[in-house]
Amino acid sequence: MTLPESTFENLRLELRRGCLTLAVLVQLRSEHYGYTLRKDLADRGLVIDESTLYPLLRRLETQGLLVSEWREEEKRNKRFYRLSSDGEQILGQLLQEWQAINTSISSML
Amino acid sequence: MELLDRYLQAVKKHLPWQRQDDIIAELRANLESQLDEKQAELGRPLTPAEAEAWIQQLGSPVRMASHYQPQQYLIGPAIYPAYLHVLRIASMWALAIYTLVATITIVLGPSISGAAVAQAAFRLPSIVIQVAAWVTLVFAALEFIATRYPGKCPPIAGFYANWSPSTLPPLEPVPAPGTKRPSYTQAVTEVIFGFVVLTWLVLVPRHPFLMFGPGIAFLHASPFRLNPILLTFYWWIVGLNALQLAWRCIDLLRGAWQHPGPLRHIVSKLFGAIPLVLLAYLPGSAYVLLRHPETDMSRYAQTADSTNRGIHAGLQVLCVIVILQLAWDVAQALVSVLRGSQQPR
């Protein structure tokens, strides 16, 4: 990888990092388990590695933004996640922040 | 699928032990759902090659497990500037104190040998590394406490948060047009050279050939010898060199090598002037003595006497020059201090 390519890749990862968290919180306004969440995000153009998404869900739950429960579905135990009340509040604030940034960037272009 | 079981087994080994089973159960459920969908699309089970390719793209077990580890810095960004600052100061003092102590130990030790000097020089990096290791350990402990018990450590995170513009240092003097500021390379080279010169000065009394070369043989054969009291002044010069070197190291580590203060220059000149003045007034001005006075008095007494008178005169002239230079440096420093205090704020 050349220097410009590696520079772009580093900056791209930084840009995606915050956006992925927002995307996950948005999607978890409705209940999902890990695999269906990943599939939904991929269908909407946001492809996330398993090794990134599943630990992210755990981290967001540790931070109190998500709640989870184990349930049996199709003869398999699965862990379902959804937003907690704190998560909903934070999501609202993040969406406002996102829209403000989006507006600023759009005005510069 | 056996390959998936082996993959999950390998991931489990690197997970935080308190949550291993829970994480593996969740990961298994997600990956098995993914596998079912793949096989449903194909209408058949995966071949061994396809299974291997699928597991491969999940990433290595260590990488997969590492994302489940709690995110923690050894020394976080909040206290890293403080860590760097303390590391520089601690290294600077360790270097300066060790240089001074090692020089004194070697000079006052039973023998001044190249081996003792080399041993002291080779011990220097380990001293600096030990100091750096202790500072790093302390700050890593502070980071650990600040992360686990944030309420107990607010001053650490706010180390640089509470500052006032009134504490900013005064403007540095602008160099006169045409003058060149010393570069970092020059400053480092001066320090390295200073160490070499100090080492040489410490070794010369024991190994005089280092100063006189093969000519030392003529000196040993000559009827004259240096007054032993001169050795005392020699060590004073060595101490002055060690002091100047330590000061230069401090300036380098403080980042003040481009603007060495006038104090260093003045203190060095003062320390250098003291032995000169004392030597110039040595009782009898006996700098050079006869090696065998009982046999050589009649032949070489006049030569020794005229040599001593010449050295005495030279020292007196040197004293006057050094004292005048010192007075001039002190006057210049006072004028610049007065000018600085009179400038409007």
What does this structure look like?
The complex is a heterodimer of chains A (109) and B (345). Chain A is built from 4 helices and 3 strands; from the N terminus they run H-E-H-H-E-E-H. With 109 residues, chain A is of the alpha+beta class. Chain A has one domain: Winged helix-like DNA-binding domain superfamily/Winged helix DNA-binding domain (Arc Repressor Mutant, subunit A), CATH 1.10.10.10. The radius of gyration of chain A is 16 Å and the shape is globular. Chain B has 345 residues and is mainly α. Among the domains of chain B are: 65 residues, no CATH class; 117 residues, no CATH class. Chain B has a two-stranded antiparallel ribbon with strand order 1-2. The mean pLDDT of chain B is 81. Classes of the chains: A alpha+beta (109), B mainly alpha (345).
Summarize the structure.
Chain A has helices at 3-27, 34-43, 50-62, 85-108, and strands at 32-33, 66-73, 76-83. Chain A is an alpha+beta fold.
Task: For this entry, give a set of tags.
heterodimer, A: 109 residues, alpha+beta, Arc Repressor Mutant, subunit A, 3 strands, B: mainly alpha, two-stranded antiparallel sheet, 13 helices
Radius of gyration of chain A: 16 Å
CATH A-level architecture of chain A: Orthogonal Bundle
Low-confidence parts of chain A lasting 5 or more residues at pLDDT below 50?
A: none
Helix content of chain A: 55-70%
Count up the domains of chain A: 1
Largest sheet features of chain A: 3 strands, antiparallel
Radius of gyration of chain B: 35 Å
Q: In terms of structural class, how would the helical and strand content of chain B be classed?
A: mainly alpha
What's the number of extended β-strand segments of chain B? Answer: 2
Overall morphology of chain A? globular
**Adjacency order of strands in the biggest sheet of chain A:** 1-3-2
CATH class of chain A: Mainly Alpha
The largest interface is:
A-B, 17 and 17 residues
Written as H for each helix and E for each strand, in order along the chain, the element string of chain A is HEHHEEH
Name the structural class of chain A: alpha+beta
